[in-house]
Amino acid sequence: MQKLLLLIALIVCIVDADQQPKCPCDDQNDCKRIMTNWKTNQTIGYVLESDSNIWSTFKWNKLTMIALIDFHQPKLMCLAHHNKIRIMAFGNFTLNDLSSSDKMHEWIENRIKEAQNNFYDGINLFIDDPVEPNSTFSQRITDFVSLTTKHFHEKLPGSIVLFNAPFSPKNEKGKAVDGKNYDYVAISKSVDLMIAMDFDQRSQSFDEPKCLAGAPESLYITIGSLMAYKNIGVDLNRMILTLGFYVDEYLCIEYHQNYRCIIQPYNYRGANCSSKIANRIPWNVYKTMIGQCWIQVWDEHSNHDIYTYLDNSIYGQIKQYWSDYPAIFKKMILIDENQMSGIGVWMLNYLDDKIWSQLPERQ
Ligand SMILES: *[C@@H]1O[C@H](CO)[C@@H](O)[C@H](O)[C@H]1NC(C)=O
Ligand SMILES: *[C@@H]1O[C@H](CO)[C@@H](O)[C@H](O)[C@H]1NC(C)=O
Ligand SMILES: *[C@@H]1O[C@H](CO)[C@@H](O)[C@H](O)[C@H]1NC(C)=O
Ligand SMILES: *[C@@H]1O[C@H](CO)[C@@H](O)[C@H](O)[C@H]1NC(C)=O
C-alpha cells in the first residue's frame, strides 16, 4: 500500500512538473506578459524584499518596470501587472557560473523556469567579478549575456533582458571601473537595454595623499561617464541611468578647512581609498536623522549637498554625509538631452513622498 501511494505521488509530481504554473492573481489576465513599449520613457524601480506595507507606497503611474532583488512575491507580480508594469528577476551571476558550457546552460534554464513559474517579463543581469581586458572570461561574459538574451527571447516571447553596468566604463585612471573589463559595446548590442548604475562612483578612489569623503554620484562625473560610454560606441538611446537613493556616512579621522573630511584608507581592487568604508543609509531613514546641529553646505565640485554632523556621544567625533537628493531634476535633463531610455531607482524601498513626487509620470 505504501509503495503504491509513493508511486502515485511520484506520478502526480511528474505530471505536475509539466503543467503550466497556476496563475495566482484574481484577474487571470494579470499573469500575461506586458507587451507595451520598453524602448523609451522607462522608469525601472529596484525592490528589496518587502511586503505590502512598502508596495502600498509605490506610485504605479511613475513606474514602467520593477526588478526584485532576490525574492519572489506572487501578490506583487499581480499588482505590478495589473498596473501594466513589467516585473523582472534580478539575475546575479559569477564567473563560477561560466566555468563550462553546461553550467551556463543550466543557469539560463533555471532562470527561464523561474521567470515562467513567476510570470516575469524578463531578467536584469548583473555580475561584479573583475576580469582582465580581452581575457577568456571577459569574452565568456559577452557570450553568456548574448546566449541568455537569445534564450529568453525564444522561450518567453516578449520578454526583455537588461544588463547592469557600472557608472562608467573607465575610472579616473583610465582603467575599467572596479576591474570590470567587460566588452560593454558588445554587451549593449546584445541585450535589450543596458543600465548604468550611476552611484558608487567612489568605490575606487585615488585620493592623494590621504583618503577623502566624497559624493557617491557627482553630476560632473555622470556627464563625463555618459560621454565615455558614447565614445566607446555604446548607444545611449538604449541605456537607462539608475540613481542611488542612499546617503554615504563617513567617519572623519581628521577634519580640515573647507569641509575636508579625511577618512581611513580602504583597499578596493587596486585603489587605496573606497566608499566601501562608508555606512550606506537609505534616504528615507537618513531624512529622519537630520537635526538642528547639522551643517549643510553645497559642494560645487560634485553638485552635491554635504551634511556634516558633530556627534556628541563621543567627544569631537565628526561624521560627514553625502547625499544626491537635489540632483534628480538635473539628471533627468541629462537623460532627456542624451535621449536615453529612462531613469532607474535604486531602491524603491528608500524613497519618501517628496522623491516620488519628483519622478516623472509615465502613464
Ligand atoms: C516620452 O515623454 C515625452 C515627454 O516627457 C514625450 O514628449 C514623448 O512623446 C514620449 N515618448 C514616447 C515614445 O512616448
Ligand atoms: C545580487 O546583487 C545585488 C546588487 O549588488 C545585491 O544586492 C544582492 O545581494 C546580490 N544577490 C546575491 C544572491 O548575490
Ligand atoms: C581589447 O579590447 C578592446 C575593446 O574591448 C580593444 O579596443 C583592444 O584593441 C583590445 N586589445 C587587444 C590587445 O586585443
Ligand atoms: C597605494 O598606496 C601605496 C603605499 O602608500 C602606494 O605605493 C601605491 O602607489 C598606492 N596605489 C595607488 C593606486 O594609489
UniProtKB/TrEMBL annotation:
* Alphabetical list of SUPFAM superfamilies matching this protein: (Trans)glycosidases (SSF51445)
Q: Which InterPro entries does the UniProt record give?
A: Chitinase_insertion_sf, GH, GH18_Domain-Containing
Signal is among the record's keywords: yes
For this UniProt record, give its keywords in alphabetical order, as a comma-separated list: Glycosidase, Hydrolase, Signal
Q: Say yes or no: keyword Nucleus present.
A: no
The entry's cellular-component GO terms read: extracellular space
Q: Which GO molecular function entries does the Swiss-Prot or TrEMBL record give?
A: hydrolase activity, acting on glycosyl bonds
Q: Which GO terms describe its biological process?
A: oligosaccharide catabolic process
Q: Signal peptide location in the record? A: 1-17
Q: Output this protein's name.
A: GH18 domain-containing protein
